[in-house]
Amino acid sequence: MASGASTVHGLRRRNRARVLWDLYLNGPGSRQRIGSAAGVSPGTVSNVLGGLMEEGLVLESGLVPSAGGRPSSIVQVNPAYGYVIGVDVGESSVLVELFDLAMGVCATNRSLTELTQLSPADVVTQVAGGVHAVLADAQVAESDVLGVGIGVPGLVEHSPLAVVHGQSVGWDAVPLEALLREQIALPLAVGNGAKLLGQAEHWFGAARGEADVVIVLIGQGVGASIITGGSADLGPMSSAGEWGHTAVSIDGRICRCGARGCLEAYVGAGAILQRYEELHGMPARTGDLERRTDELLARVDIDPEVAEVVDESVRYLGAGIANLVNVFSPRRVVLGGWLGRQLAELRMPEIHAAAERNALRTPFRDVTLLRAELGADAVALGAATLPVSRFLSSGGDREAVLGATATSTA
Amino acid sequence: MASGASTVHGLRRRNRARVLWDLYLNGPGSRQRIGSAAGVSPGTVSNVLGGLMEEGLVLESGLVPSAGGRPSSIVQVNPAYGYVIGVDVGESSVLVELFDLAMGVCATNRSLTELTQLSPADVVTQVAGGVHAVLADAQVAESDVLGVGIGVPGLVEHSPLAVVHGQSVGWDAVPLEALLREQIALPLAVGNGAKLLGQAEHWFGAARGEADVVIVLIGQGVGASIITGGSADLGPMSSAGEWGHTAVSIDGRICRCGARGCLEAYVGAGAILQRYEELHGMPARTGDLERRTDELLARVDIDPEVAEVVDESVRYLGAGIANLVNVFSPRRVVLGGWLGRQLAELRMPEIHAAAERNALRTPFRDVTLLRAELGADAVALGAATLPVSRFLSSGGDREAVLGATATSTA
DNA sequence: TGCCCTTGGTTTACGCCTTGAAAGAAGTGG
DNA sequence: CCACTTCTTTCAAGGCGTAAACCAAGGGCA
Fold it and tell me: Which domain holds residue A51?
């Protein structure tokens, strides 16, 4: 435990990890490209790849003719080497997905939660059930699974097992990881849902390839995933998700967290509905929050009263984005979450303008606002990146990943 | 350039760097302690230290008797191995300080700037003059200087030479590093002043030894230095200093940056004076901003009108701190800057209460608010940590540090 | 068809590194 | 004076990456 980084074995592990990461993020490629991209000499690339191929972790997948020379052979990670599971514990359902190493979906399982309240015990049961269901569904053995990532609403504290504080869903210090361990005998990693959505967009979506980027998640709750220097490790508790509870208007409207003037009290779905109600009386009251919001937004172009409410939200959203831009100077800001994506579609120019009004010129000059690309299963996908990330960083050491009683990191 | 981390030479460099960092931050110690703290085997410690001592970079400085065994010999970095210079380009003066490697002050030079405006050319002249003055003063040869760190107000963009955007002092894309290079033939590193103050507090002050901490800087301007996971690399431009321009009250008071509702428009020194004037007419008008503010604050306990203004600032400050706590969940928040230190002294309980009102319970539970420990030269000290940091991370490779035309990092 | 050229990948001699174990060094207590 | 403890150094052994030479596989051209 003490050694590992300073040793010469660690060097090899790091080089394996570099090669694997490059292969994973930049796609299949020739040995030459891998060498220069990962900063490793050609000889070492061959050496390392030799080992990896023997273990079946990477495979040769074709030749690319080159302009008058020996053609490159392309290597890639073997998607079938192992599987990972991503879980999205949402406020209305639990989604479990089984992926191969290339993040191809192999099986899916969704179970609805009671809308009333999220009981930890029920969630644990549903997660465990979902995990077993997808494995059975795709006929994958547990021993072929490298790990399970779980995205939850609220703060995740690692001490060292994950404890979840979900102020908005009534979870107070729920020892989720310990509970899950009793029913799942696989390596677990628990993370904040907003952060994981961000990671998914960063690996596979609109934030791809950018080292400094912020992904905003707007739904009922409001969060942000902040990625600087290519990684998202901000704060000991994955708390960057709590952007929604930053004050943008002291003494402003009261938020469900209890404080005043939180961003979420202006741009969250609940806020929009409530604001419309205050101004213009009750909107349609059927269906869940998401449906009611959708119905409202559908009328934005024809109903000035709706437009008024939306525009107010947009102003606050812009200011919130400006705050992020000022502090982090990302190069992209990605708007995600079911409501965020809709707002991006309906009001992107206005959001941009509102942000510009409040941001400093210099950092704002270099920023691009984008709509998130991934769909409804982005959180599950992001959750699945946790075990993948662990696996790659270990240099593809299956034993290390499985053996560890695994302090979960997220 | 391509290699360096993956190679076996790099391994040695990293191990040297580990040992040096441990020695530097955790103070002198026995070989045994170094070994376990840095995660290196005893043999390697001896080996590495042998080299370092031969180069004169570390030296043996005494024995510590142990309970019935061979006494440990204590090693420490040699303060006289080299020198570094820290520069604080403030809004009213340029302070240049020469330090030895142990950050002992060897010489100081302060030159006042015209209060009217900060002309880049004048600043460059003053910095260069100050550098030569302190060297002459302490009779240190240029060749013994490992580098010069410079703290400036405003955003610093590395592209790759440092370009400074100081919206509040009228600097728009000033290529400061290029200008300085023409007059100073030493490795340079430019950084945001707020961030550097934070680094100083982190290495030597109230934030010492804590991996996740936020240092707030309040003077005329308002900034924050955010340290997560032990390092402060947030954003490609060291922009974390721009916390003062985050909106806490949309449509609120207008800030000198042009936007509305910035935190700085409520808690900066100018804001306090102006607010008092609005409410109660002109305060004393003699002296500079700092003196006038001091005079006002001196009356806070006897003049309810002053107290009213201060308390308003404190409320906003608390909300701003809460925002930082929610997003980063630091374990300490340190209040620095000449005004910040005063507010901490006068109103710490009120600041704490205001922050608590706006923060989420979970992250706030673990946070401690502290007053900064370092004095008026903290920015210069922090600036001097830049070349030191570079030197230590290089594993104490003097040539590497001096040779590099040095992409400045901060 | 045969030769050279270009480009991609592989092998090998070499030097360097860390480790782990064993030996050495420096005190203490009996 | 001899164990015993604690800290430090030495040394053989095993691994690693690099550089440079060396194979492999085509394309173009005569």
Answer: 8-77
